[in-house]
Amino acid sequence: MDIAQIKLSVVSMPLKSPFYTHLGTVTEREGIIVEVIDSDGISGYGEGVAFSTPWYTEETVKTSLHILSDILIPLLKNNPIGHPKDAAILFRSIRRNNMAKAGLEMAIWDLHAKRNSESLSANIGGTRKKVAAGVVVAANSLSSSIKQIEKHLEAGYQRIKVKINPQMDYSFLAGIRRHYPALPIMADANSAYTLKDMEKLKALDDFNLMMIEQPLASDDIIQHSLLQRELKTPVCLDESIVSFEDAKNAIDLGSCKIINIKAGRVGGLYEAKRIHDLCLLKGIEVWCGGMIEFGVSRAHNIALASLPGFTIPGDISASNRFWEEDIITPEVKVENGYVDVPDTFGIGFGINEKRLKETTLIEKVFIFDKK
């Protein structure tokens, strides 16, 4: 792959409404758009999905920008690659910083698919023409949550995820169930509980949830195995799974019955696909998580969710879920509960250059010298 230059754009955009979790409230979203351009002028796009503060993982936009600018891009300059897999393997020499790695690696995947005149979905082995859409409700009260759920169901979303914590769980879920007895619901705890809360978590079996996502510590696998033995509700792991090895260990220990795969969290599409393939082999259900991302990352999620093992509706909402105007064209739309998987080259979406320029805070360009 004859890379000529790489452009990094740090962008910022206000959310249409606040996104609440017990870890914090997001009202403004920063991210990094990565553009990899080859010698023929073809561009591939990726997105660094770290947040401005380290509430989800240890990475931030600033640390990702540093790792991309000072470590990963120079590494790529000095080690020419022939395939996106080569970039993923090359980046293993750098510990963690998976969201920075993913932003660059996924841009290379998009470029690779375009150079091969394929959609990204086809390029990574996707089989679906449409992917089922789910959505997250992140409100700070039952009444607000009910209003959001009603709105999302009218828009056609096939399942709802709600945020819970020890101060807002049983009565909160009971209130939702009174309104929606048969609604597919998953509960996301974002590591709000410990094993001391075992009885509290077991009580949530009353609500026939699809899953409880990441109830215990963000880096734990062992204690989740003890919890899963006691729960009827499937445990889903999210933050704990940052590599293929983590997924294998969690499956071997019986720590979960479901895994949320986020390409940004695990370092890119190559590692995400490896985890998918393992789960498919072992009979573990998977779904594609979201990161309050802009359209570039959402486009990659659509391609990832087209793989055969993604049987649960993912956090793949429409562009207008978060943004007045996204940075891709056309914007992502949900129709009858599904999002179409593009069959055009690469991620299947163009860049809204006007919107990208309006929202860019920092731009950095790296020129690759000809050998």
What does this structure look like?
By secondary structure, the chain is α/β, with parallel strands linked by helices. Helix content is 36%, strand content 23%. It contains 13 helices and 15 strands. The chain has helices at 61-78, 84-90, 98-115, 120-124, 142-154, 170-179, 198-203, 222-230, 244-253, 263-266, 269-282, 295-305, 353-359, and strands at 3-21, 24-38, 43-48, 130-132, 134-137, 159-163, 185-188, 211-213, 235-237, 258-261, 285-288, 328-329, 338-340, 350-351, 360-367. Strands 5-6-7-8-9-10-11 form a 7-stranded parallel β-sheet. Strands 3-2-1-15 form a 4-stranded antiparallel β-sheet, sandwiched between helices. The longest helix has 18 residues, at 61-78.
Short characterization:
By secondary structure, this protein is α/β, with parallel strands linked by helices. The protein is built from 13 helices and 15 strands. The chain has helices at 61-78, 84-90, 98-115, 120-124, 142-154, 170-179, 198-203, 222-230, 244-253, 263-266, 269-282, 295-305, 353-359; strands at 3-21, 24-38, 43-48, 130-132, 134-137, 159-163, 185-188, 211-213, 235-237, 258-261, 285-288, 328-329, 338-340, 350-351, 360-367.
Oligomer class: single chain
The first-level CATH class of the largest domain is given as Alpha Beta
Fraction of residues in helix: 25-40%
**Residue runs with pLDDT of under 50 for 5 or more positions:** none
